[in-house]
Amino acid sequence: MRGLMARLLGRIKAEEASLQIMGLQQDESEVIIYEQGGPVPTTVAALATEAVQQIRQDD
Fold this sequence. Notes:
Number of domains: 1
Order of helices and strands: HHEEH
Strand order of the largest sheet: 1-2
Helix content: 40-55%
Largest sheet: 2 strands, antiparallel
């Protein structure tokens, strides 16, 4: 759930949540997300890092 929430917050560029998302960048818990109909294994840390990059994009 943490990884999916980080992914969502990154996509909507929720700047107010960026500090909390950064706290997840050390969380190596495994998560399976679905892209183009197929399962993709990843980690909470990877999703959090991507979310922070999305939030900071165009700053």
